[in-house]
């Protein structure tokens, strides 16, 4: 297996008396697509928000490329290579698709105080590399044909893909996708599946949370399953599909 790019080590997160996450440990490896699933309220969003730095964690350790990031502010984690998409559109309607993606790249283009900590920094070939990167991103997100259209004029599915494209433009080590298929219809979910799989070709690892089981089973190399804030299973899609504890957890949700 490749090196871990993201490490969650005995993470605990409480909200008042509610233990949203208890002793959660898992790793996302280079080039890997890892799925995080579980019934409603099992702690998926809390895990993603802990990683992104939306709130302080209660205990445990979070590492990005071997560097401890819990305790760092949100922007510093982004600069260190952690990208995420948001449920609400944070795009600029008047910009073109290409301009919006270029905006996403800005986070890595200015030299950041933590650059040396994470070993990032731009070389003189920065501009050429950026052009190439944007071309690649337009290609894999299927936005090439609308690159020069204004953001306001593209479809809502394309806007969703644009948010992923913008996050990818920051040249991340890993991207967090929290329910990327929400609100998409069947053929758009298929496009999303392809998109997620091709993120690998950019050398970016993926942590994806999703309710659409078919999508998760299709795109993930490995899956971590949460129930009541704890990990109840971890394995390949095939292993997860046949795991009795997982089946029980989902049957519990249905009942
Ligand atoms: N900001 C918050 N304040 C209080 N409780 C929260 C907060 N966020 C999540 N929780 C609680 O933490 C638990 C896990 O929630 P969440 O991570 O949103 O689950 P999931 O994303 O898997 O549906 C739930 O019991 C939820 O009510
Ligand atoms: Mg959630």
Keywords:
Rossmann fold; 10 strands; 4-stranded antiparallel beta sheet; 6-stranded mixed beta sheet; binds magnesium ion; binds adenosine-5'-diphosphate; alpha/beta; 10 helices; 38% helix; 255 residues
Task: Describe what this molecule looks like in 3D.
This protein has 255 residues and is of the alpha/beta class. It folds into 2 domains: 1-81 and 173-184 and 203-255, 3-Layer(aba) Sandwich (Rossmann fold), CATH 3.40.50; 89-109 and 122-171, no CATH class. 38% of the residues lie in helices and 24% in strands. It is built from 10 helices and 10 strands. The strands form 2 sheets. It has a 6-stranded mixed beta sheet with strand order 6-7-8-3-9-10, with helices on both faces. A 4-stranded antiparallel beta sheet has the order 2-1-4-5, with helices on one face. The longest helix is centred in the middle third of the chain and has 15 residues, at 126-140. The N and C termini lie far apart (38 Å). Bound molecules: adenosine-5'-diphosphate and magnesium ion. Adenosine-5'-diphosphate binds next to strand 2 and helix 1.
Please outline what is shown here.
The protein has helices at 44-52, 74-79, 97-109, 115-118, 126-140, 156-169, 186-199, 213-219, 237-241, 244-254; strands at 4-15, 18-29, 33-37, 59-64, 67-68, 82-84, 174-178, 205-209, 222-227, 230-235.
């Amino acid at each position: 297996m490749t090196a871990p790019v993201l490490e969650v080590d005995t993470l605990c997160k409480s909200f008042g008396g509610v233990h949203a996450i208890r002793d959660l440990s898992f790793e996302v490896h280079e080039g890997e697509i890892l799925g995080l699933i579980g019934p409603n309220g099992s702690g998926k969003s809390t895990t993603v928000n802990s990683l992104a730095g939306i709130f302080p964690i209660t205990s445990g350790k979070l590492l990005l490329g071997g560097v401890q990031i819990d305790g760092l502010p949100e922007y510093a984690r982004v600069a260190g290579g952690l990208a995420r998409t948001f449920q609400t559109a944070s795009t600029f309607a008047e910009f073109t698709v290409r301009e919006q993606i270029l905006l996403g790249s800005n986070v890595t283009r200015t030299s950041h105080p933590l650059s040396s900590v994470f070993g990032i920094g731009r070389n003189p070939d920065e501009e050429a590399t950026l052009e190439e990167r944007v071309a690649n991103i337009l290609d894999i997100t299927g936005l090439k044909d609308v690159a020069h259209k204004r953001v306001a004029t593209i479809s809502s599915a394309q806007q969703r893909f644009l948010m992923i494209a913008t996050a990818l433009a920051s040249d991340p080590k890993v991207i967090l996708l929290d329910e990327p298929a929400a609100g998409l219809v069947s053929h758009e979910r298929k496009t999303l599946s392809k998109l997620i799989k091709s993120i690998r070709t950019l050398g970016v690892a993926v942590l994806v949370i999703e309710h659409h089981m078919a999508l998760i089973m299709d795109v993930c190399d490995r899956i971590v399953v949460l129930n009541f804030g704890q990990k109840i299973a971890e394995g390949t899609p095939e292993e997860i599909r046949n795991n009795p504890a997982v089946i029980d957890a989902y049957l519990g949700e249905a009942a």
